[in-house]
Here is the input.
Amino acid sequence: MKKGVKHLIECQCILPQYRDRQDSVFHRFIVFSEVDDAENVIPKSAQCSICGVIHRVSDISNSEIFM
Here is the structure.
């Protein structure tokens, strides 16, 4: 039986209101991932809602930018 979980993915883009800060605040967006019986995340792609870059989601709160 598959389960689902909502979690945050961090992108490398910075929202305009945070561009002048010394410490970078990266944009995060919500994704929904399916988890199988063995508690493994079923890999999927998700698009950043700000910059549009595609992320390959492979684990909870973990992704890599897909080129």
Notes: The beta strands are 3-14, 26-35, 44-47, 54-59, 62-65. DSSP finds no helices and five strands in the chain. The two ends are 32 Å apart (CA to CA).
